[in-house]
Write a structure and sequence with these properties.
Chain lengths: 384, 292, 260
């Protein structure tokens, strides 16, 4: 085994752990206890400190010794998460008092996790299920370590709560505010977004069919539709609030305007997507306009229409939330974000953002699943 | 000139129809309030006088197009660009944040894309998150960024530019990953037969191949950047910028001002997107792309 | 086997796919001498392109041995021992014809003046003088493929690997390019490996025809051509030509059960 083949993360992690071992203390409290002669005063990591360091050394050595990839991944997974668990568990009560050893260890653990992700990324398991599992595990690991480092840094350095609350506090806030969050989601998503989305997409679709039928209309609308996609349409929100009142109807109106044009432009493009040969075939059957539309052109346009539906799912959420910044009844996701930030309740704002992110992903996911079911024949779905 | 005629006539016709509908809408939406006003003052205007009055209210429900045009003209050309009622001034405030954020966002997006294309671990771990983040309403964090940064004493241009950076980063990163991966297997094999280094393959193949993708994603990014800057102006107590004009207009029901601010924002957007489109076309032409 | 440009012995290559292993090459023994024009012919899936890619170190064999110019394919590739011509011209659309030909020269760090000289010479070799400043899309398909041959010739490798280079062109253009290729071969004295699925093309061009069959990809016949090196197009009506073509067809039929 030549030294050049040793993964750099292993060497770097080992160096960092050694630095941690030779640093005087994990926290200021430990330092105080040590200078007091270590006479029985309890301090963070009194017991778990050596254990964490041992786990980290083991993990770093595992990397350097390079066992089989699967074994290395399993060992690193257990070791690094056990160490991280102890590190996060121990900082309670010592927030803001982290010293060199804490930071060296955290950096070492991050590197070990990085190596774990590298090993997992290079795994090419034989089975399809196992391959999918690994493909999901790597980003999940990445997300988890973002949270772990966020938590460790915020609490270790004692970053002011207002600036950036630790993820655990946000989690607690979500758990404690389920009724409020549910009411906001109901108001913003189920009333404003869904109504506006359905009306906007349907209107865009109908106008697209008309534009497809009449060349003049198409030539007039498409350049305008393309241009509108670049405009800050969100700015119509204050006008809609004035016209339709503070409740969800004004937000739905904003969503209608925002979703109309992408649907129009994409559907028109999709209706032009069927090939000449296929259209000539329909002509040889002397098929009518509606028959050609229903049997050839709409199915061929389906990927484009779903593309618009997916774009619109995100636009609709943005439209409704931002429109709520301009005035709402006392419920709704945008309202909650703007008022709670005014009261400096950042954890609530983060909770609302997390819920918005989840809602956005679910909304998009539902449309994507629907797309899979409808356009299973398309190369992008089949996987070429 | 027939082709020019057949291209522009429909657009002009549709625009004319929009203006006509707008006037009708202005009459219909402003009429009830005007009727109420006239009844209270005991006036009985002729039909024509009444129509004119619906189009000249100070705070109409829907301002007539000429009112908006007059307001835009007045606040663009008749005021000193330094006046805080000047649309040029407010557009510039928003534009500076947009451009700064866009520049950083694009640079960051390209950097991340280069990393993702070259490091498998980044591709496997970071890429799914970047794609997933396309589906979430990230604009929702705008107020928090503004307020939290204000709490630590950072105000003005930087927080807005930060939001713009954030919004423009995603489309560029996704577009550039696609672009840097766009070379066909055959082109990559060719580089392999030459025993080309990674850097050579990158500069001679991946970078030129990604140029169309870069400009396409920059168009999306600058539009997102502008929206980010405008929304970033909403929670700051509305000092300056297009967003503050919108918010002010909304507080005082100055619908004409809101529409004027919207027009200003749209003009800025069209100019920015056109510049990038033009730069893209020129670059591609210089690179020998087939004229469309 | 000294002096052989390519020497393969019991060569095998198995691809791992989602549907299980696929044996693309099995037990291939073949020697290609200097200056030969060797065609590989067979139905799709017979491994002819794979074999070419193994020579080029674009695929790695899983069994047996192969040497190119007496070294491993990887070393040969790093020594830039061969030029490769793909099924499509694979020209970079953002480079003019001369800059496309210059691409390998830039990568190999050849001086600007030397580059200009080689571009002039190779474009002349493929009759493209005067098209230096054109972009690929301004040229016909046949001209594009000629430019890609010029690119493969530009750095003076002795071995030319061609993977169905004229497959996408119509027959009239193809005949013309075949004739030109023979002239070029005579002038440059290169060793050429040529993958095709056209029997007349293989017989017309080659000094040696390797007939292959699929599942697993293997060599079923190696035919040494008795045709003279000077070959006018009319040679394709001669009895000798037809006899060789017949033998190739027999070889293809024997190796293929036509089960599909």
């Amino acid at each position: 085994m030549s030294l050049r083949n040793v993964p750099w993360q292993g060497v770097a992690a080992l160096v960092l752990v050694l630095l941690a071992i030779f640093s005087p203390a994990f926290t200021t409290q430990e330092l105080a206890a040590l200078s007091a002669g270590g006479s029985g005063a309890a301090f963070p990591y009194a017991v778990t400190g050596p254990l964490m360091l041992a786990l980290a050394v083991l993990a770093a050595l595992t990397i350097v010794l390079r066992p089989r990839p699967a074994a290395e991944a399993a060992a690193l997974f257990v070791l690094v998460h056990a160490a991280a668990w102890l590190l996060l568990g121990g900082i309670a009560g010592a927030e803001g008092g982290a010293l060199a050893a804490y930071w060296f260890l955290l950096a070492a653990l991050w590197l070990i996790a990085w190596r774990l992700a590298t090993v997992l990324s290079s795994l090419r398991p034989a089975g399809r299920a196992a391959d999918t599992a690994v493909r999901l595990l790597v980003p999940a690991l990445f997300g988890a370590w973002i949270l772990i480092v966020w938590e460790a840094v915020v609490r270790g350095a004692g970053i002011p709560f207002i600036l950036l609350p630790p993820p655990s506090a946000i989690g607690v806030r979500i758990a404690n505010s389920v009724p409020i969050l549910a009411a906001d989601v109901y108001q913003t998503i189920f009333k404003a977004v869904l109504t506006g989305y359905v009306i906007g997409c349907a209107a865009g679709f109908v106008v697209a069919i008309l534009a497809d039928r009449f060349l003049f209309l198409r030539r007039g609308l498409i350049p305008i539709g393309n241009m509108v996609s670049a405009l800050p349409i969100i700015g119509v929100a204050p006008i809609m609030v004035m016209w339709f009142g503070f409740d969800w109807q004004s937000k739905a109106a904003v969503v209608v305007i925002m979703t109309f044009f992408p649907m129009l432009v994409n559907t028109v493009a999709g209706l032009a997507a069927s090939g000449h040969m296929e259209r000539d075939l329909m002509r040889t059957y002397a098929s009518s306009y509606t028959q050609t539309l229903a049997k050839l052109r709409l199915p061929a346009a389906a990927p484009f229409i779903f593309n618009a539906l997916k774009i619109n799912s995100t636009l609709a959420l943005i439209g409704a939330i931002v429109a709520e910044f301009f005035g709402t009844p006392i419920v709704g996701m945008g309202f909650r974000i703007s008022t709670e930030i005014g009261r400096m309740n950042v954890d609530m704002v983060w909770a609302e953002i997390a819920v918005a992110a989840l809602a956005g992903s679910v909304f998009y996911g539902v449309v994507a699943l629907l797309e899979r079911a409808v356009t299973f024949w398309h190369p992008s779905i089949r996987g070429g | 000139m027939t082709s020019l005629h057949s291209r522009f006539a429909p657009v002009l016709a549709v625009l004319a129809a929009i203006v006509a509908i707008w006037y009708l809408g202005a009459y219909a939406l402003n009429a009830p309030f005007q009727r109420d006003l006239d009844r209270r003052s005991g006036e009985t205007p002729t039909a024509w006088e009444f129509v004119v009055r619906t189009m000249t209210q100070a705070k109409p429900t829907l301002p007539a197009p000429h009112q908006v045009v007059a307001n835009v003209y007045e606040n663009t050309f008749l005021r000193k660009p330094t006046s805080n009622r000047s649309l040029v001034y407010h557009s510039w405030v928003t534009l500076s944040a947009t451009l700064l954020g866009f520049a950083f966002g694009t640079a960051l997006g390209i950097l991340i894309a280069v990393g993702i294309v070259h490091v498998t671990t980044l591709d496997r771990s970071l890429m799914p998150w970047i794609i997933a983040s396309q589906t979430i309403p990230i604009l929702a964090i705008a107020p928090m960024v503004i307020v939290v940064l204000a709490a630590v004493g950072i105000t003005g241009l930087i927080p807005k530019a930060l939001i713009s950076t954030y919004l423009s980063f995603f489309p560029v990163a996704v577009g550039m990953v696609k672009g840097l991966r766009s070379p066909e297997a055959m082109h990559l094999d060719l580089m392999r037969t030459y025993h080309a280094s990674r850097a050579q393959t990158f500069w001679k193949l991946r970078v030129p191949a990604s140029v169309p993708f870069l400009f396409a994603s920059m168009k999306v990014a600058i539009a997102a950047s502008l929206v980010g800057a405008i929304v970033g102006e909403l929670p700051t107590g509305a000092v300056a910028g297009i967003g503050s004009r919108l918010l002010n207009g909304s507080y005082y029901s100055q619908t004409i001002d809101i529409f004027a601010a919207l027009i200003a924002g749209s003009v800025v957007a069209i100019i920015l997107v056109s510049i990038i489109g033009l730069a893209g076309r020129l670059t591609e032409k210089a690179m020998g792309a087939r004229p469309a | 086997m000294t002096g052989a440009v390519v020497a393969a012995s019991r060569l095998g290559l198995t691809f791992r796919t989602n549907d299980g292993p696929v044996e693309a090459l099995s037990n291939v023994d073949l020697t290609i001498g200097k200056g030969e024009f060797v065609s590989f012919i067979g139905p799709s899936g017979c491994g002819k392109t794979t074999f070419l890619r193994v020579i080029a170190d674009l695929e790695q064999p899983t069994a047996g041995t192969i040497t190119v110019n007496g070294m491993s394919p990887e070393m040969a590739r790093k020594a830039r021992a061969y030029g490769y011509v793909f099924q499509a011209a694979a020209l970079y659309p953002w480079r003019t014809i001369e800059r496309n030909v210059a691409l390998p020269l830039e990568i190999m760090g050849i001086s600007k003046s030397e580059q200009a000289e080689r571009i002039r010479r190779t474009l002349d070799l493929v009759n493209l003088t005067g098209f230096e400043k054109k972009y690929p899309w301004q040229l016909s398909g046949g001209m594009q493929q000629r430019a890609s041959i010029a690119r493969a010739l530009a750095f003076d490798a002795d071995l030319l690997l061609m993977d169905e280079p004229f497959g996408a062109l119509d027959e009239i253009v193809r005949d013309h390019l075949n004739e030109q290729l023979l002239v070029l071969w005579a002038r440059t004295q290169k060793t050429i490996c040529f993958v095709t699925h056209s029997i007349p093309e293989a017989v017309y061009l080659s000094t040696k025809i390797v007939v292959m069959s699929p599942r697993p990809g293997r060599v079923t016949d190696v035919i040494e051509s008795t045709l003279p090196r000077e070959r006018p197009l009319e040679i394709r009506e001669s009895p000798e030509f037809l006899a060789i073509a017949h033998r190739v067809r027999e070889g293809l039929r024997a190796g293929h059960s036509y089960d599909d």
